[in-house]
Amino acid sequence: MLRLIWDIALHHLSGRRRQTLTTVTGVAVSTMVLITTISLTRGLLDSFVDTIVDVAPHMTLKGEPVTPPAVDLVTDVGGGVRGFVEENVRKEEREEVRAYRRILEMLQQEPFGSEVTAVSPYVQTQVMVINGNRNQPLVFKGVDVDREDRISGLASKLVAGSLEAFRKTPGALLVGRSVAEDLELDVNDEVTVVPASGPSRQSTVAGVFFTGVNAVDNTVFVTLKFGRILEQLSADKVSGIAFQVRDPQATDRPAASIERMTGYRCETWQEQNANILSLFTRIGYIVMSLVGFVGIVSGFGVANILVTTVFEKSRDIAIMKSFGFSAPVLVSLFILEGFLVGLAGALAGGILSVGSIAFLGSLPVETSQGPLTKTGFSMSWNPLYFLMVIVATSMISTIAAMFPALKAARMEPVSVLRDSSL
């Protein structure tokens, strides 16, 4: 019986070859578009996470004291707590981490020694940089270049210049490529640095780097000593400390431990990029909704060909029922046809999507994809996305085939055969 149902299903589909081919093509194109869209969005997210984990600190200790828990003075009656309001207008203190060398020593001990793999104190300051008739406000980040290299891999990100020249040149700058393009800077160029307070200084560009993270590429690295001079910080203070940990996906526990130990706010890379990560999540929901809607449209196309088949094959269906084909057998027949059309289109779409993903990924075009700058599109080759769309499309086509199948099963052979128009 199964072989007979299979042969009849193939005969029905091949009998209307042009319409079947058109429906399969529509399903294939829809599947290709869906898989390519998912590959693009997920590829961008994976590329962003990989780049951030590779370039940016996994955790950052900021010069922001941990805020104590708020006290409820309204409902906590009799708690012995009092609140006072004073006239106290004072200059806002800048964020700074004090006695940072002591913190570095403690981080080398357990339990931090086994989790923290690299540490880099830094001083961050806002300055104005002037090159000829061009000027731009920039963020300078004073670092120990050897420590910073272990976190961000600066040596491998240089496109011009060298770290050796940076170490030997007083007041040297490592300039992000975006800054270099905006100010038309090249290696050995001299610029004027104007800090928020204090005299202006002459600095030399010792290197240009490119990480692909736009926020980093808009930064200028200087030595830790030069950063302190510009920010007017004493030798025992820094703006913050950057960390790299063994497991970038498990940063909550070490960050909380460091906060308790130091009393300063320790922010993870997930918290720093929460807005971007939530945006990717929303985009993912939109893409999945698109998958559902396009799958439903493909299902309508499959249902259309089967409804036409039921109408044109009414006499054949009546004869089959008169020969003893039961209603469940007829339902199975048309469901099988819907499944075959959907599966054929989904598989063809999967093959087409391999070509479209490879094509987009190989385009030698530098694109600014949100927070990243990449050459070509970041595409994901995760086979799970292929399987998910192919299975979903096949299931929707199979479900869509149930409606014409039930119509065929309800036909009365006598009334159909009596119809003279058949």
TrEMBL record:
<keyword id="KW-0812">Transmembrane</keyword>
<feature type="domain" description="ABC3 transporter permease C-terminal">
    <location>
        <begin position="289"/>
        <end position="413"/>
    </location>
</feature>
<protein>
    <submittedName>
        <fullName>ABC transporter permease</fullName>
    </submittedName>
</protein>
<dbReference type="InterPro" id="IPR025857">
    <property type="entry name" value="MacB_PCD"/>
</dbReference>
<dbReference type="InterPro" id="IPR051447">
    <property type="entry name" value="Lipoprotein-release_system"/>
</dbReference>
<dbReference type="Pfam" id="PF02687">
    <property type="entry name" value="FtsX"/>
</dbReference>
<dbReference type="Pfam" id="PF12704">
    <property type="entry name" value="MacB_PCD"/>
</dbReference>
<dbReference type="InterPro" id="IPR003838">
    <property type="entry name" value="ABC3_permease_C"/>
</dbReference>
<feature type="transmembrane region" description="Helical">
    <location>
        <begin position="283"/>
        <end position="306"/>
    </location>
</feature>
<feature type="domain" description="MacB-like periplasmic core">
    <location>
        <begin position="20"/>
        <end position="259"/>
    </location>
</feature>
<feature type="transmembrane region" description="Helical">
    <location>
        <begin position="21"/>
        <end position="40"/>
    </location>
</feature>
<comment type="similarity">
    <text>Belongs to the ABC-4 integral membrane protein family. LolC/E subfamily.</text>
</comment>
<keyword id="KW-1003">Cell membrane</keyword>
<keyword id="KW-0472">Membrane</keyword>
<keyword id="KW-1133">Transmembrane helix</keyword>
<feature type="transmembrane region" description="Helical">
    <location>
        <begin position="384"/>
        <end position="406"/>
    </location>
</feature>
